What does this fold into?
Amino acid sequence: MKQDEKRLLITGGAGFIGSTLVEMLLARPEARVLNLDKVTYAANPEALERFALADNYRFAKGDICDRPLVERLLAEFRPQGIMHLAAESHVDRSIDNAAGFLQTNIMGTHVLLEAALAYWRGLEGAEREAFRFLHVSTDEVYGSLGPEGLFREDSPYLPNSPYSASKASSDLLVRAWHQTYGLPTVVCHASNNYGPRQFPEKLIPLMIIKAQGGQNLPVYGKGDNVRDWMHVSDHARGLLAALERGQVGQTYNLGGGVELNNLELVRRICRLLDQELAGSRQEPHEELISFVPDRPGHDQRYALDIAKARRDLGWTPQVKFDQGLADTVRWYLDNRDWWERILKESYDGVRLGLA
Ligand SMILES: NC(=O)c1ccc[n+]([C@@H]2O[C@H](COP(=O)([O-])OP(=O)(O)OC[C@H]3O[C@@H](n4cnc5c(N)ncnc54)[C@H](O)[C@@H]3O)[C@@H](O)[C@H]2O)c1
It folds into this structure.
């Protein structure tokens, strides 16, 4: 291994956030990336093709639950850090069938922790000192807020969906592997991400795709559930800051600080489409909004206090929401092929998660 190389094992690097992170890393000359991804329905095959052109990139198609595979990859690649993003990530799917969420998010994290611990114990000196296991988690583990207040890193865990319960479980395993065995872990809790290449089952791409096609825009309940939105590139930069500057055993909230209720968010998307597609429809896209039965157990509000990440990681979100949302709408309009393939092959836009 060359002295100045930074070798990182990324799990889930074909997903929405993982592929943004891998892209950022590949632009750094010192980075060597090994991406372990099972390539589920949520993966971006097109991103994998792009990455394959880079000299500092390797891909392993496989499951984080496969311990012999994970052990072999660690022994061969000898990473200085692991950034663990692989997960089943869609709340509505977890309501329909939680089994895959428990398997990947909990048991898969357990496999990675065990393999990482054995690998880390075999390291010596500065390599052992510098190694980090960065676990990527969500603000959803904290449960739901009323109209006031923010989640802090010491807020209690009160997950309400099968997805958030599986992420909370994995966070607690990470904590235990640090407290009990000394594995040098760092955990980040991110708010809702948006940006290009997000799978069309998620709120923002779903609304853009349906609205541009003149279809009904199904808003859950009264549309008054509030989320804190962060651009995916800000998240990826925050994860790198946490890897490089995070204190071992600490957790950090990463959020965009932009709170919007779902109805207001959908209205903003509609207004952007009114401008982008001026002349293609007589009536405003807002008229496509319809209210549908709420998600069972739908958390009312998420909002994060990110003071700790600002202070200790020197990180702050940079993408202005209005610009980031406008660019995202433009990206989906410009990349029809990308989402049309998904709609044809793996997701037809139907409502999921009604229990
Ligand atoms: N999207 C968000 O808004 C958000 C917010 C906070 C935290 N997170 C967390 O960030 C991480 C990444 O989220 P995302 O939105 O990019 O998810 P995603 O669903 O877009 O991608 C997940 C990736 O993991 C891979 N994967 C799934 N199961 C696997 C397994 N068993 N073995 C190997 N690979 C597997 C998939 O193929 C896919 O490429 C997740 O841990 C998620 O919980 C996401």
The longest helix spans residues 99-121.
